[in-house]
């Protein structure tokens, strides 16, 4: 078995995890394909590994700039063997800094689900990364309206989003979303649950144990 690839893959892997762009800059200059090549056992690219640390921000910015410079823009969002792209990873780790770098290149990727059907919005809510969730919601608000049937606020996609936001305990964000998209409150998620059902089963979300205040505001917003 040939292990020659380890001579380049291991240093790149280490550099991505330790925010050490300088140690691999020349490697990428000699072989640009390595910048977007899967290198871990999960099929992660150097960009995805670096984003996942939520600490290698210098490495991410320099790598994205270099990928753009060689014209490989379409390779920025290569997916892992689990179906995640770098923006999904940023949402999971609460990495808003690198999410902004990625979204600047392709805002539409905020709508793209992974192989499990979760968008970056869903993942930010699921992992309780409130700052990243708010950022992604702002990006979504600025996008051109989707084609009918593809909105993240309707159908199962909408049900997943609002129930995950409520499960995370972000009731302020839930109210904001419902205020703008009232029908999302009755959309069913992938488990056939609606926002109203999830709320009714979680009195612990409210310090007083009563949901009346929230229900009142929900009714008015809807």
From TrEMBL:
SUPFAM superfamilies: Ankyrin repeat. It holds the Pfam family Ank_2. InterPro entries: Ankyrin_rpt, Ankyrin_rpt-contain_sf. It comes from the Eukaryota. This is Ankyrin repeat domain-containing protein. It comes from Deinandra increscens subsp. villosa.
């Amino acid at each position: 078995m040939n292990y020659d690839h380890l001579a380049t893959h291991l240093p790149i892997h280490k550099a991505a995890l330790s925010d050490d762009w300088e140690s691999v800059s020349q490697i990428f200059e000699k072989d640009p394909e390595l910048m977007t090549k899967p290198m871990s056992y999960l099929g992660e690219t150097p960009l995805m590994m670096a984003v996942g640390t939520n600490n290698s921000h210098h490495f991410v910015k320099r790598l994205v700039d270099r990928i753009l410079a060689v014209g490989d823009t379409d390779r920025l969002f290569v997916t892992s063997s689990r179906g995640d792209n770098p923006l999904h990873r940023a949402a999971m780790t609460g990495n808003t800094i690198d999410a902004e770098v990625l979204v600047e290149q392709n805002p539409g990727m905020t709508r793209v689900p992974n192989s499990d059907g979760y968008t970056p919005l869903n993942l930010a809510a699921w992992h309780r990364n409130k700052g990243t969730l708010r950022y992604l919601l702002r990006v979504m608000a600025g996008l051109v309206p989707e084609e009918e049937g593809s909105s993240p606020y309707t159908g199962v996609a909408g049900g997943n989003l609002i129930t995950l936001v409520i499960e995370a305990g972000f009731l302020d964000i839930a109210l904001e979303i419902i205020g703008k998209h009232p029908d999302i409150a009755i959309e069913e998620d992938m488990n056939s649950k609606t926002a109203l059902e999830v709320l009714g089963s979680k009195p612990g979300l409210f310090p007083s144990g009563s949901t009346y205040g929230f229900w009142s505001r929900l009714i008015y917003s809807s």
